[in-house]
């Protein structure tokens, strides 16, 4: 019962992060499942089955708040589903001993990307209003879907930064569109895992509690995306993912690091993580101050223009 409650809380927290940041539900949940000894394919299958419900709830919530660009959803979602089915089939055919470290490496890479991306760069805002082409979105969806299924997460970490980097649609619509299109990815990956490993290898009680936690959090996350600084949240979540997956790798048969090495690695990661979060907080405050100054300057110029027009 304690494990089920914990998983439910993880599902809730992961969906709060995912709905606010456009990524990390699968990466966060799969990381925990691997940490408690679930095999790689079963962990990814469990998360993707839960995501059918959480992504549906998240998509509906984002739609309600006007956070979705349906053209983007269509152009990226279908290729993403194809890639997810292929990834699930691939992972299902790997041995457990081989698959677990590979998944941890994928998750660690994604965690590092999230940490560095949001700490160093924040959210780009140029090129707003320009259309996103299918020749960009289709390959992105295919790769994102494959990585998502094989890594137990990755749709958001691959898709969200790539579309954000284009700067062509507002950040909240990037996040809403990625969350909505992930519904198709979750369905395709789940079908692939059910065919590949069979339903008897999936703990449906775990699926249920992850789903429940995620569905509770989905509407809150859709609201939070308008209010929580993504830069700070990205740094915080990226650090959690990096620390957890480094722990899994250091304890794996591939590395089997001594206790002293493990402790030193954890301390070093924790220090860098704290520094990254502190830097993100500082840069966010600086950006807010700059935006306030720019707004005041624009208002002053507007008033001067009005006064000049009235005296002319």
UniProtKB/TrEMBL annotation:
Membrane topology designation: Multi-pass membrane protein
Tell me yes or no: is Cell membrane among this UniProt entry's keywords: yes
Q: Where are the transmembrane segments?
A: 98-116, 180-198, 204-225, 262-281
Alphabetically sorted, this entry's keywords are: Cell membrane, Membrane, Transmembrane, Transmembrane helix
Q: Superkingdom, according to UniProt? A: Bacteria
Pfam families from the entry? TauE
Where does this one sit in the cell? Cell membrane; Membrane
Similarity section: Belongs to the 4-toluene sulfonate uptake permease (TSUP) (TC 2.A.102) family.
Query: What is the protein name stated in its UniProt record?
Result: Probable membrane transporter protein
| Protein's organism | Sphaerisporangium aureirubrum
């Amino acid at each position: 019962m304690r494990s089920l409650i914990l998983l439910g809380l993880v599902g809730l927290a992961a969906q709060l992060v995912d709905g606010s940041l456009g990524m990390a539900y699968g990466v966060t949940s799969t990381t925990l499942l691997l940490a408690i000894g679930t095999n790689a394919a079963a962990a990814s299958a469990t998360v993707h089955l839960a995501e059918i419900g959480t992504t549906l709830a998240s998509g509906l919530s984002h739609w309600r708040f006007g956070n979705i660009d349906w053209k983007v959803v269509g152009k990226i979602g279908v290729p993403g589903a194809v890639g997810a089915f292929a990834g699930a089939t691939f992972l299902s055919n790997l041995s457990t001993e081989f698959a677990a470290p590979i998944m941890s490496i994928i998750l660690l890479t994604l965690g590092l990307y999230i940490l560095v991306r949001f700490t160093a760069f924040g959210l780009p805002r140029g090129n707003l209003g320009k259309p996103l082409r299918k020749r960009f979105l289709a390959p992105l969806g295919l790769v994102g879907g494959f990585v998502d299924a094989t890594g137990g997460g990755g749709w958001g970490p691959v898709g969200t930064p790539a579309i954000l980097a284009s700067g062509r649609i507002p950040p909240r619509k990037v996040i809403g569109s990625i969350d909505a299109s992930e519904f198709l990815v979750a369905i395709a990956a789940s079908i692939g895992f059910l065919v590949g490993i069979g339903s008897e290898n999936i703990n449906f009680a775990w699926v249920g509690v992850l789903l429940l936690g995620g569905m509770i959090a989905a509407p809150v996350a859709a609201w939070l995306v308008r209010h929580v600084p993504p830069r700070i949240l990205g740094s915080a979540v990226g650090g959690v993912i990096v620390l957890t997956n480094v722990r899994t790798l250091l304890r794996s048969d591939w590395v089997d690091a001594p206790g002293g090495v493990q402790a030193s690695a954890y301390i070093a990661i924790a220090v860098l993580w704290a520094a990254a979060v502190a830097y993100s907080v500082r840069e966010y405050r600086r950006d807010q101050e700059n935006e306030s100054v720019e707004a005041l300057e624009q208002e002053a110029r507007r008033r001067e223009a009005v006064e000049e027009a009235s005296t002319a």
